[in-house]
Amino acid sequence: MAKIKFSKNELKKQKDQLKRFERYLPTLVMKKQLLQMEIRQVETQIEEKRQEREKKYSELMSWVHVFGEEMNFAELVKIKEVDLGSTNIAGVDIPVFRGIMFEKAPYDLMVYPLWVDAGIKKLQEIFSLDTELSVLEKQADLLGSELRVTTQRVNLFEKVKIPETKENIRVINIFLGDQQTAAVVRGKLSKGKLVREA
Questions:
Q1: Domain 22-163 adopts which CATH fold?
Q2: Is pTM, for the whole model, over 0.70?
Q3: For the segment 130-184, what is each residue's pLDDT rounded down to a tens digit?
Q4: Where are the domains positioned within the chain?
Q5: 147 DSSP β-pair partners
Q6: Alpha carbon of 144 to those of 55, 71, 119, 124, 156: distances in Å?
């Protein structure tokens, strides 16, 4: 407990502080709930994108296995540009995946199988999903970090600051009440002493 003065000014300061804490706490609680909701949504999106990626990868591999051709198609798919935006959720700036552009890589039709165009398209979809997944994971990390800080602040207000301030107010009120009672008693004793002397 911080050292406090036992005065009316300190009492007013503590009451003002309590009002501030109690006014700020609901905002923090609401921010915490919003962050939790957003994290759940991002985690759901991550799971959906992982499943979609696995499906596309399985489709690509089934073609490769069916035709029995082991070629490195990844060298034909080069990322030209990743388009990222930014949005603000509960005071946290997070990246948003907007799209991806690929370079058109030349290839020899005599070397690669006939389905190379479809394979390149599937690889581009897989690379796009990989990029989107990494952006979603970054979102989850940023939101999770902010949630930890917000939770700490909520706990600080709920479990430390508000109870501490209420206790300070209670102690100051008791002290000031005792001082007032002592002043009344001293006044009566002085009055009684003056009456006896007169």
A1: Helix Hairpins (1.10.287)
A2: yes
A3: 999 999 999 999 999 999 999 999 999 999 999 999 999 999 999 999 998 988 8
A4: 22-163
A5: none
A6: 28, 41, 37, 30, 18
